[in-house]
Design a protein that fits this description.
- The structure is a homodimer of 152-residue chains.
- With 152 residues, chain A is mainly alpha-helical.
- Helix content of chain A is 62%, strand content 7%.
- Chain A has 6 helices and 2 strands, in the order ααααββαα.
- In chain A, helix 2 (45-56) packs across helix 4 (73-85), helix 2 crosses helix 5 (107-128) and helix 3 (62-69) packs across helix 4 (73-85).
- Chains A and B meet through helix 1, helix 2, helix 5 and helix 6 of A and helix 2, helix 3, helix 6 and helix 7 of B.
- The first copy, chain A, binds a DNA duplex (30 and 30 nucleotides) through helix 1, helix 2 and helix 4.
Chain lengths: 152, 152
DNA sequence: CGTCGATTGACTGCATACATATTATATGTA
DNA sequence: TACATATAATATGTATGCAGTCAATCGACG
């Protein structure tokens, strides 16, 4: 660590640690790291979320899928590319609307998802473990409230 | 999936919205969007955080800087590239350790930071605005607690 | 003084995330 | 039918974030 000499005094002392945007970013980093520790490198957080969404509501096009889990439409294509390359989902042009690719999970995909599920739940447990049970509930409620207003 | 293995949790329990990792990601998306709305495209959240850190503790090398604000060492290089291209920071080889690049903010950089500061504070206000004052304090406390355990 | 382990920074590759443009296809309307 | 508009998917460019590799360099040790 270098010796920091104070050479510029800022008119406004900005404490980045006090900024929600900053610590949300760092919490996100923590969550991603835990995910990769527990689940491994076979599956990323985004790929897992996509797999779950596809399994729960098959017959959706890519855009519907993206909207449902909060991805960008331009991003979902690449995610599905990688899931398709692993043989976990399939893309089929819709007959009703030939612009659409209907995305469905494959048996191999279901198996991969089932294998990952326990690890993913460990991630959530570990992530929240610094909080006691009451705090966990409050944290979830406040996050939902924030999302509800900003997305709804 | 045709095995006789009972997978009870597969059919129901995968509610992504209930997973902290998932809604933290979406909160992060919200924060980034608000940032770009208020601050504009001149400066990204990461670039702003870097600028603040550089201004507050000049004389640091890139790795120290990265550690201080939670970046990856491999990422900070590109961030500083872009700040340097705008003339907002400078890189100088250290005399004590010639592997190090000492990063410092320029007058133009200080000006850019000062201009962005009000907008950045509006971001934080808007982000937390769905919560009342008590809830905001609780939210910040819980986030800090999570970070304290996971990073400390 | 020379060697070795650790550190730093540069670089590559992969995976998001988003904006924008483009292409193909649908759909509403004149 | 012809045209304008809307939508789905893709391609491109920029910006992060992390893992891994490499060379240069530093500090410590013999």
């Amino acid at each position: 660590m270098s010796s920091a000499r104070p050479d510029v005094e800022l008119s406004v002392a900005l404490d980045m640690d006090a900024m929600p945007g900053h610590y949300i970013r760092r919490l996100q980093q923590v969550a991603v790291r835990l995910f990769s520790e527990e689940v491994g490198s076979e599956l990323t957080p985004v790929q897992f979320a996509a797999l779950v969404a596809i399994a729960q509501r098959s017959g959706l096009g890519q855009a519907d899928l993206a909207a449902q889990i909060g991805y960008d439409r331009a991003t979902i294509g690449g995610v599905i590319d990688r899931l398709e390359a692993k043989g976990w989902v399939s893309r089929t042009p819709s007959r009703e609307d030939r612009r659409q690719n209907i995305v469905a999970i494959t048996p191999a995909g279901e198996q991969a998802m089932a294998q990952a599920t326990a690890a993913v739940q460990r991630v959530q447990t570990r992530f929240l473990s610094p909080l006691d049970s009451d705090e966990q509930q409050v944290f979830e409620r406040l996050c939902r409230k924030l999302l509800g207003y900003h997305l709804g």
